[in-house]
Design goal:
- Helices cover 50% and strands 8% of the residues.
- With 263 residues, the protein is of the alpha+beta class.
- It folds into two domains: 160 residues, Four Helix Bundle (Hemerythrin (Met), subunit A) (Up-down Bundle), CATH 1.20.120.450; 71 residues, Nonspecific Lipid-transfer Protein, Chain A, CATH 3.30.1050.40.
- It has a four-stranded mixed sheet.
- Helix 1 packs antiparallel against helix 5 and helix 3 packs parallel to helix 5.
- The longest helix is centred in the middle third of the chain and has 23 residues.
- The protein is globular.
- The protein starts with 12 loop residues before the first helix and ends in a 14-residue tail after the last strand.
């Protein structure tokens, strides 16, 4: 008899809303303090400057608020765990939108407008609301989980590009880590490899003999930030192994062919 299909992970909607708002608040505080020299630095993301990265972060939240102001879609087409695989095709369009936002107003105004718009829209919209999105229609509850990924990943990008130490909201970091771990399990279903990302996630993946008890024969373990960098292509598998940021034991524990999950 085959094993029962694992139920999709669920998230507390109130905690996710608070996580998105808190992380964006941390970023807003940081952007207010950026100097012209820091804004002009390369972001490490293609040809974007730090200023363009900061504008993109504001756009992430502003576009969510604008999406909530539009008429709802009828039926969700995409779940949160499927979202990472649908992002690559939109890279050019998103980059264009970020540049347009940058030309629109000073960064501080962009952040204030985005924060105010999001707060107003979240106050009148429930998680069951279906958003009409470029990437595929999603429930608000699911889409908010994906916003934790965007905000945590870009907080890390901003820190590395500027030398800042913008804090990571624990709930946002946990949701981001778990969503990307579940995406790996979706991409490579199976039970032969156990991926541990303490303290937030443990998933089994990759076809092969299924582990049932005792110490798994194939184990990968890393910290949340390294995992997020691996899953989004900021760090390569070999680089993380060489730096002892990842431990991998067992003949099936090489995840290099499965990463990154999103660019």
């Amino acid at each position: 008899m085959p094993p029962a299909k694992k139920k999709p992970r669920t998230y507390d909607p109130a905690k996710i809303r608070a996580a998105v708002t808190t992380q964006f608040g941390h970023l807003t505080d940081a952007v207010r303090e950026l100097t012209p020299e820091q804004l002009a630095r390369p972001s490490g993301l293609g040809d974007w400057s730090v200023a363009e990265l900061a504008a993109h972060i504001a756009w992430i939240v502003d576009s969510l608020a604008r999406g909530l102001a539009k008429p709802p879609a009828a039926i969700p087409e995409l779940t949160a765990v499927e979202w990472p695989f649908a992002t690559a095709s939109l890279a050019g369009k998103i980059s264009e939108a970020a540049r347009e936002v940058l030309d629109d107003a000073p960064l501080v105004e962009l952040y204030d407008r985005a924060a105010d718009g999001l707060a107003a829209q979240l106050a009148v919209n429930q998680g069951s609301r279906v958003l009409d999105l470029w990437i595929g229609d999603m429930t608000l509850a699911d889409f908010l989980v994906t916003r934790t990924v965007e905000l945590i990943v870009h907080t890390d990008d901003l820190n590395r590009a500027t030398g800042l130490d913008v804090p990571f909201d624990r709930q946002a970091l946990a949701a981001c880590t778990r969503l990307l771990a579940d995406a790996l399990a979706l991409k490579a279903p199976g039970g032969s490899v156990e991926v541990r990302i303490p303290p937030f996630a443990v998933v089994q993946c990759v076809e092969g003999p299924r582990h049932t008890r005792g110490t798994p024969p194939n184990v990968v373990e890393t910290d949340p930030l390294t995992w997020i960098r691996l899953a989004t292509g900021r760090t390569r598998w070999a680089e993380a192994l060489d730096a002892a940021k990842v431990t991998a034991s067992g003949e099936r524990a090489d995840l290099s062919a499965l990463l990154p999950l999103m660019g």
